[in-house]
Design goal:
By secondary structure, the protein is an alpha/beta fold. Helices cover 39% and strands 23% of the residues. The chain folds into two domains: 101 residues, Roll (Urease, subunit C, domain 1); 290 residues, TIM Barrel. The chain binds zinc ion. The site of zinc ion has 7 residues, from loops.
Length: 496
């Protein structure tokens, strides 16, 4: 008697038994009359994922032991105990992760994905030296549609492996980023970056407006790609550039991504130039609004935070970048107390972080806040998971569709393997997820109901090919930098 046959026979009495198999199709009809009848009474769905613990991140932060999520047509149709879900739903495929936590896909609210090709190109240097001697020359010579496509696909593979299902990006040729995102299966909010000087994808403000308008038009309504406008920062964009970006974003109902108050130098520069903090200057020109997502916010003061809360501006907190570049500690606890929505981000990997690991982002954000406050009770694990999921979704204006495991939301979910020596035993699943594991613990990534990572394989991308391409870029760029490239002055792109 095979196990499958036995399972089919006992289905009516023990519907949960099915889910005890690893990835397996549900039983075909006809094995046993009782099973046939039972399956017939159930609703059909595409996928059921079962796990040791389902961390829903709903408003009550419900955690379901021995839980399951059912998915149909890319949406979540059931969340509950394994017994409840499998009693009501019959799936075409079942994924069983008895040693894992199942949670919403992680939302990285700030990165420059294509810069993965410049990973670690120059570390441990002062910001301006890093930019002028390495980043500007490397970007000035190489940023092209191919560079952006290859770099974004490499970053996409890293994100898929690490449980990131949605990311916000600021770079150039974002229409090529969009094509890469579409191919990878990820979800992206993709902001074409504008500056007051020429970049590879547009040379002046009229051209920036023209190409970005075409980008916004082409991708409008796409289920996974949200086109956005990304004026780089208050110190690299004039009032005219900022307001043109805002007008275009508002016209399309698109997000506006910007760097804000990242360094003390920026604070001093804007104060010297306009007599105000960067946030209050942006407000004085009418730039701030609910669609603005500001990255960093390290040097925001209490007045700035009040202002951002009043204008419903969202913040992206990038603890590792702020630490690695010596920028400072962002006042995120104060920001949240003031009513500002705060998501988490990694920033780019070309020196400001070096990886896209959102588990690291949670871990560092928590520890940094505790050090800042000299208080271990601030930003507990549960809040850090919220920041990496539902609050990140809120920061991108997508909280109605993603960010938690709830019926009706898109099925963006990840399984985190906790059956390892670095995470066993665990007593509180949120603590295990935040403080014990890294991105490498993710064993399943699903976006829009589609499995992107399972069985240690990225399903949508040819990773071996991507690694080969990355090595080719590395040889080329290393040779250029060794050849003593002239530092670019004002012409190089400066996303970071
Ligand atoms: Zn950045």
């Amino acid at each position: 008697m095979t196990r499958r046959w036995l399972a089919a026979l006992l289905l009516a009495a023990s519907p949960a038994l099915l889910a005890a198999d690893a990835v397996s199709p549900s039983p075909g009809a006809g094995k046993a009359a009782a099973a046939k009848a039972a399956v017939h009474e159930k609703s059909r769905c595409d996928l059921i994922v079962t796990a040791a613990s389902v961390v829903t991140v709903d408003s009550a932060f419900r955690v379901v032991p021995d839980g399951a999520v059912a998915v149909k047509d890319g949406a979540i149709v059931a969340v509950g105990t394994r017994a409840e879900v499998t009693a009501k739903w019959a799936a075409r495929a079942t994924v069983s992760r008895p040693g894992a936590a199942l949670m919403p896909g992680l939302v990285n609210t700030h990165t420059h994905a294509a810069m993965s090709l410049l990973r670690g190109v120059a570390d441990d240097r002062p910001l301006m030296e890093w930019l002028e001697k390495s980043i500007f020359p490397a970007e000035g010579k190489n940023v092209s549609p191919k560079f952006v496509t290859d770099g974004t696909l490499l970053a996409a593979a890293e994100m898929i492996r690490g449980g990131t299902t949605t990311f916000a990006d600021m770079y150039y040729f974002e229409w090529d980023v969009a094509s890469a995102v579409e191919k990878s299966g990820l979800r992206g909010v993709l902001g074409e970056t504008w500056l007051d000087f020429p970049v590879a994808s547009h040379k002046d403000l009229p051209e920036s407006i023209r190409v970005t308008r075409a980008f916004l038009t082409k991708w409008k309504g796409h289920p996974r790609v949200t086109a956005a406008v990304a004026p780089h920062a208050p110190y690299t964009c004039s009032k005219e550039t900022l307001l043109a970006a805002k007008a275009l974003a508002d016209e399309f109902g698109a997000p506006l991504l910007i760097h804000l108050s990242e360094t003390r130098d920026e604070q001093k520069t804007i104060l010297g130039k306009y007599g105000a903090s960067p946030a209050s200057w942006l407000d004085s020109i009418g730039f701030l609004g609910p669609n603005v997502l500001a990255a960093h916010g390290v040097w925001l003061d209490a007045e700035d935070l009040k202002l951002l809360a009043a204008r419903k501006v969202k913040l992206s907190h990038n603890p590792e970048s702020n630490m690695k570049l010596g920028s400072g500690i962002a006042p995120v606890v104060a920001a949240m107390k003031a009513g500002v929505v705060v998501g988490l981000g990694t920033d780019g990997v070309a020196g400001s972080n070096n990886d896209l690991d959102m588990f690291d982002a949670m871990d560092f954000a928590g520890k940094l806040a505790k050090v800042q406050a000299l208080d271990p009770t601030v930003l507990p694990a549960r809040d850090l998971i919220r920041m990496a999921t539902i609050e990140g979704a809120r920061a991108l204006g997508m909280e109605a569709r993603i960010g938690s495991l709830e019926v009706g939301k898109r099925a963006d979910l990840v399984a985190v393997d906790l059956a390892t020596s670095r995470s066993q035993p665990w007593y509180d699943v949120t603590s295990a997820v935040v403080y014990s594991v890294k991105a490498s613990a993710v064993s399943l990534t699903v976006v829009d109901g589609k499995v992107l990572w399972d069985g240690r394989k990225v399903r949508t991308l040819d990773e071996a090919r991507l690694l080969l391409t990355a090595a080719e870029w590395r040889s080329k760029i290393a040779a250029q930098l060794a050849g003593g490239a002239e530092p670019a002055k004002a012409e190089g792109p400066v996303a970071r």
